[in-house]
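[09:14] KT: can someone run the structure on this one? pasting the chain below
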Amino acid sequence: MSNKRPETKLVPVPSVNKIPERDVDKSPILEAQHLGIDFGGLTAVNEFNMAIGRTEIAGLIGPNGAGKTTVFNLLTKVYQPTRGTILLDGLDTAGKTTAQVNRMGIARTFQNIRLFDNLSVEDNVKIGMHNTIHSGMLSSVLRLPSYWREEKIAHQRALELLSLFDMQDLANAKAGSLPYGAQRRLEIVRALGTNPSLLLLDEPAAGMNPSETAELMENIVKIRDTFQIAILLIEHDMSLVMGICEGICVLNFGQIIAKGTPTEIQNNPEVIKAYLGNGKEV
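[09:31] RB: done, C-alpha coordinates below
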Protein backbone atom coordinates (compact mmCIF):
# COMPACT_ATOMS: atom_id res chain seq x y z
CA MET A 1 0.00 0.00 0.00
CA SER A 2 1.47 3.38 -0.99
CA ASN A 3 2.20 6.02 1.66
CA LYS A 4 1.90 8.83 -0.87
CA ARG A 5 -0.79 11.43 -0.29
CA PRO A 6 -2.67 13.39 -2.94
CA GLU A 7 -0.48 16.12 -4.35
CA THR A 8 -1.03 19.76 -3.44
CA LYS A 9 -1.19 22.28 -6.25
CA LEU A 10 1.68 24.77 -6.10
CA VAL A 11 0.98 28.33 -7.22
CA PRO A 12 3.33 31.32 -7.76
CA VAL A 13 3.76 34.01 -5.12
CA PRO A 14 5.01 37.52 -6.03
CA SER A 15 8.55 36.25 -6.63
CA VAL A 16 10.30 33.37 -8.38
CA ASN A 17 8.89 30.94 -5.81
CA LYS A 18 5.76 28.82 -5.37
CA ILE A 19 3.73 27.78 -2.33
CA PRO A 20 0.68 25.53 -1.79
CA GLU A 21 -2.54 26.94 -3.18
CA ARG A 22 -4.28 26.86 0.24
CA ASP A 23 -1.63 29.28 1.62
CA VAL A 24 -1.72 31.76 -1.25
CA ASP A 25 -3.93 34.27 0.58
CA LYS A 26 -1.22 34.67 3.23
CA SER A 27 2.40 35.74 2.86
CA PRO A 28 4.97 32.90 2.99
CA ILE A 29 6.30 32.10 6.45
CA LEU A 30 9.78 31.97 4.93
CA GLU A 31 11.23 33.41 1.77
CA ALA A 32 14.90 33.12 0.83
CA GLN A 33 15.96 35.39 -1.99
CA HIS A 34 19.27 35.02 -3.87
CA LEU A 35 20.82 33.46 -0.79
CA GLY A 36 24.49 32.49 -0.88
CA ILE A 37 27.58 31.94 1.25
CA ASP A 38 31.28 31.69 0.50
CA PHE A 39 33.90 30.08 2.70
CA GLY A 40 37.17 31.66 1.65
CA GLY A 41 37.27 31.26 -2.11
CA LEU A 42 34.72 28.42 -2.13
CA THR A 43 31.06 29.07 -2.88
CA ALA A 44 29.07 26.62 -0.77
CA VAL A 45 25.56 27.87 -1.66
CA ASN A 46 24.61 30.26 -4.44
CA GLU A 47 21.37 31.83 -5.70
CA PHE A 48 19.17 29.85 -3.32
CA ASN A 49 15.55 30.96 -3.76
CA MET A 50 12.73 29.28 -1.84
CA ALA A 51 9.37 30.17 -0.30
CA ILE A 52 7.45 28.09 2.21
CA GLY A 53 3.72 28.48 2.74
CA ARG A 54 2.39 28.87 6.26
CA THR A 55 1.12 25.29 6.50
CA GLU A 56 3.40 23.64 3.96
CA ILE A 57 5.47 20.52 4.45
CA ALA A 58 8.46 21.15 2.19
CA GLY A 59 11.50 19.07 1.36
CA LEU A 60 15.12 19.98 0.69
CA ILE A 61 16.94 17.10 -0.95
CA GLY A 62 20.15 16.45 -2.81
CA PRO A 63 23.26 14.24 -2.83
CA ASN A 64 25.67 14.24 0.11
CA GLY A 65 27.66 17.47 0.17
CA ALA A 66 25.08 19.37 -1.88
CA GLY A 67 24.78 22.15 0.72
CA LYS A 68 21.52 21.20 2.44
CA THR A 69 22.70 21.56 6.03
CA THR A 70 24.53 24.75 5.07
CA VAL A 71 21.16 26.15 3.97
CA PHE A 72 19.68 25.20 7.36
CA ASN A 73 22.62 26.91 9.06
CA LEU A 74 21.97 30.05 7.00
CA LEU A 75 18.25 30.07 7.80
CA THR A 76 18.96 29.69 11.53
CA LYS A 77 21.89 32.15 11.52
CA VAL A 78 24.53 29.64 12.53
CA TYR A 79 26.15 31.17 9.45
CA GLN A 80 25.58 34.72 8.27
CA PRO A 81 24.97 34.76 4.51
CA THR A 82 27.49 36.36 2.19
CA ARG A 83 24.63 37.65 0.06
CA GLY A 84 20.87 37.47 -0.26
CA THR A 85 17.87 38.00 1.98
CA ILE A 86 15.96 35.80 4.41
CA LEU A 87 12.45 36.92 5.31
CA LEU A 88 10.82 35.17 8.26
CA ASP A 89 7.13 36.02 8.53
CA GLY A 90 7.88 39.01 6.32
CA LEU A 91 10.68 40.33 8.54
CA ASP A 92 14.27 40.58 7.35
CA THR A 93 16.58 38.50 9.55
CA ALA A 94 19.76 40.32 8.47
CA GLY A 95 22.14 40.68 11.42
CA LYS A 96 20.02 38.49 13.72
CA THR A 97 21.55 35.83 15.93
CA THR A 98 20.45 32.21 16.22
CA ALA A 99 18.64 33.00 19.48
CA GLN A 100 16.88 35.98 17.94
CA VAL A 101 15.55 34.09 14.91
CA ASN A 102 14.45 31.31 17.25
CA ARG A 103 12.36 33.84 19.14
CA MET A 104 11.05 35.08 15.78
CA GLY A 105 9.61 31.61 15.17
CA ILE A 106 12.13 29.23 13.61
CA ALA A 107 13.25 26.01 15.35
CA ARG A 108 15.34 23.07 14.19
CA THR A 109 16.67 19.62 14.91
CA PHE A 110 20.10 18.33 13.90
CA GLN A 111 21.62 15.42 11.97
CA ASN A 112 23.36 14.33 15.17
CA ILE A 113 21.06 14.15 18.18
CA ARG A 114 21.78 16.95 20.66
CA LEU A 115 19.99 16.16 23.90
CA PHE A 116 20.98 16.69 27.52
CA ASP A 117 21.48 12.99 28.21
CA ASN A 118 21.64 13.25 32.00
CA LEU A 119 18.49 15.33 32.31
CA SER A 120 14.99 13.92 32.28
CA VAL A 121 12.86 13.78 29.17
CA GLU A 122 10.59 16.45 30.63
CA ASP A 123 13.48 18.76 31.51
CA ASN A 124 14.78 18.50 27.95
CA VAL A 125 11.41 19.68 26.70
CA LYS A 126 11.30 22.50 29.27
CA ILE A 127 14.68 23.73 28.05
CA GLY A 128 13.08 24.14 24.64
CA MET A 129 10.35 26.23 26.25
CA HIS A 130 12.71 29.01 27.37
CA ASN A 131 10.98 31.49 25.04
CA THR A 132 7.71 31.16 26.94
CA ILE A 133 9.02 31.07 30.53
CA HIS A 134 9.17 34.55 32.03
CA SER A 135 9.97 34.07 35.72
CA GLY A 136 13.30 35.69 36.58
CA MET A 137 16.30 34.33 38.43
CA LEU A 138 15.23 35.87 41.76
CA SER A 139 11.78 34.24 41.71
CA SER A 140 13.42 30.92 40.74
CA VAL A 141 16.00 31.06 43.55
CA LEU A 142 13.46 32.17 46.16
CA ARG A 143 10.74 29.86 44.81
CA LEU A 144 8.23 32.68 44.70
CA PRO A 145 4.58 31.98 43.74
CA SER A 146 5.24 33.26 40.21
CA TYR A 147 7.91 30.57 39.82
CA TRP A 148 5.55 27.78 40.86
CA ARG A 149 2.81 29.07 38.54
CA GLU A 150 5.18 29.03 35.59
CA GLU A 151 6.56 25.64 36.63
CA LYS A 152 3.05 24.14 36.70
CA ILE A 153 2.26 25.57 33.25
CA ALA A 154 5.59 24.32 31.87
CA HIS A 155 4.99 20.84 33.30
CA GLN A 156 1.54 20.59 31.73
CA ARG A 157 2.78 21.93 28.41
CA ALA A 158 5.71 19.49 28.35
CA LEU A 159 3.38 16.53 28.93
CA GLU A 160 1.03 17.77 26.20
CA LEU A 161 3.89 17.96 23.72
CA LEU A 162 5.26 14.56 24.73
CA SER A 163 1.80 13.07 24.26
CA LEU A 164 2.06 13.84 20.52
CA PHE A 165 4.50 10.94 20.34
CA ASP A 166 2.92 8.94 23.19
CA MET A 167 5.99 9.72 25.31
CA GLN A 168 4.29 11.28 28.34
CA ASP A 169 4.94 8.15 30.43
CA LEU A 170 8.68 8.62 29.82
CA ALA A 171 8.74 12.15 31.27
CA ASN A 172 10.90 11.16 34.26
CA ALA A 173 13.30 8.90 32.34
CA LYS A 174 16.79 10.12 31.52
CA ALA A 175 16.99 11.29 27.93
CA GLY A 176 20.20 9.33 27.37
CA SER A 177 18.49 6.07 28.34
CA LEU A 178 15.92 6.27 25.54
CA PRO A 179 16.17 4.11 22.41
CA TYR A 180 17.53 5.89 19.34
CA GLY A 181 14.14 6.44 17.71
CA ALA A 182 12.68 7.88 20.90
CA GLN A 183 15.62 10.28 21.22
CA ARG A 184 14.89 11.50 17.68
CA ARG A 185 11.27 12.10 18.63
CA LEU A 186 12.27 13.89 21.83
CA GLU A 187 14.45 16.28 19.86
CA ILE A 188 11.44 17.19 17.71
CA VAL A 189 9.29 17.70 20.81
CA ARG A 190 11.94 19.97 22.33
CA ALA A 191 12.00 22.06 19.14
CA LEU A 192 8.21 22.36 19.30
CA GLY A 193 8.60 23.69 22.83
CA THR A 194 9.89 26.96 21.38
CA ASN A 195 6.45 27.46 19.81
CA PRO A 196 7.76 27.81 16.25
CA SER A 197 5.93 28.88 13.14
CA LEU A 198 8.55 27.06 11.02
CA LEU A 199 10.15 23.77 12.07
CA LEU A 200 13.34 22.61 10.34
CA LEU A 201 14.02 18.86 10.55
CA ASP A 202 17.52 17.75 9.54
CA GLU A 203 17.32 14.06 8.49
CA PRO A 204 14.65 13.12 11.05
CA ALA A 205 14.44 9.53 9.78
CA ALA A 206 18.19 8.86 9.96
CA GLY A 207 18.82 5.50 11.61
CA MET A 208 15.14 4.55 11.73
CA ASN A 209 13.72 1.29 10.45
CA PRO A 210 10.85 1.29 7.92
CA SER A 211 8.20 0.95 10.62
CA GLU A 212 9.62 3.88 12.60
CA THR A 213 9.89 5.95 9.41
CA ALA A 214 6.25 5.29 8.54
CA GLU A 215 5.22 6.37 12.05
CA LEU A 216 7.40 9.48 11.72
CA MET A 217 5.65 10.42 8.48
CA GLU A 218 2.28 10.32 10.20
CA ASN A 219 3.61 12.33 13.13
CA ILE A 220 5.07 15.07 10.91
CA VAL A 221 1.69 15.52 9.25
CA LYS A 222 0.05 15.42 12.69
CA ILE A 223 2.37 18.20 13.92
CA ARG A 224 1.56 20.36 10.92
CA ASP A 225 -2.17 19.81 11.29
CA THR A 226 -2.21 20.25 15.08
CA PHE A 227 -0.14 23.43 15.26
CA GLN A 228 -0.85 24.80 11.78
CA ILE A 229 2.84 25.46 11.20
CA ALA A 230 5.22 24.98 8.28
CA ILE A 231 7.84 22.23 8.21
CA LEU A 232 10.99 22.04 6.09
CA LEU A 233 12.91 18.79 6.16
CA ILE A 234 16.18 17.47 4.82
CA GLU A 235 15.89 13.77 4.17
CA HIS A 236 17.50 11.01 2.13
CA ASP A 237 14.59 8.59 2.55
CA MET A 238 12.69 9.25 -0.67
CA SER A 239 9.61 7.32 0.45
CA LEU A 240 9.23 9.82 3.30
CA VAL A 241 9.93 12.87 1.12
CA MET A 242 7.62 11.84 -1.69
CA GLY A 243 4.97 10.68 0.75
CA ILE A 244 4.47 13.88 2.74
CA CYS A 245 6.25 16.82 1.08
CA GLU A 246 4.20 19.20 -1.04
CA GLY A 247 6.97 21.32 -2.52
CA ILE A 248 10.48 19.94 -2.99
CA CYS A 249 13.71 21.81 -3.69
CA VAL A 250 16.70 19.89 -5.04
CA LEU A 251 20.27 21.06 -4.43
CA ASN A 252 23.43 19.92 -6.16
CA PHE A 253 26.83 21.53 -5.56
CA GLY A 254 25.14 24.39 -3.71
CA GLN A 255 22.82 25.27 -6.60
CA ILE A 256 19.13 24.59 -7.04
CA ILE A 257 18.63 22.24 -9.97
CA ALA A 258 14.88 21.66 -9.61
CA LYS A 259 11.82 22.74 -7.65
CA GLY A 260 8.29 21.38 -7.80
CA THR A 261 5.80 18.79 -6.65
CA PRO A 262 6.88 15.20 -5.90
CA THR A 263 5.75 14.05 -9.37
CA GLU A 264 7.65 16.85 -11.09
CA ILE A 265 10.79 16.06 -9.10
CA GLN A 266 10.58 12.31 -9.70
CA ASN A 267 10.38 12.87 -13.45
CA ASN A 268 13.04 15.58 -13.70
CA PRO A 269 16.04 14.34 -15.75
CA GLU A 270 18.51 16.58 -13.88
CA VAL A 271 17.39 15.19 -10.54
CA ILE A 272 17.66 11.60 -11.77
CA LYS A 273 21.15 12.29 -13.09
CA ALA A 274 22.29 14.00 -9.88
CA TYR A 275 21.12 11.11 -7.73
CA LEU A 276 21.76 8.08 -9.88
CA GLY A 277 23.69 9.06 -12.98
CA ASN A 278 21.34 7.04 -15.17
CA GLY A 279 17.73 6.77 -16.26
CA LYS A 280 16.26 5.10 -13.18
CA GLU A 281 13.48 6.70 -11.16
CA VAL A 282 14.28 8.72 -8.05
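[09:33] KT: thanks! The CA atoms of residues 160 and 166 lie 10 Å apart.
[09:34] RB: yep, looked fine to me
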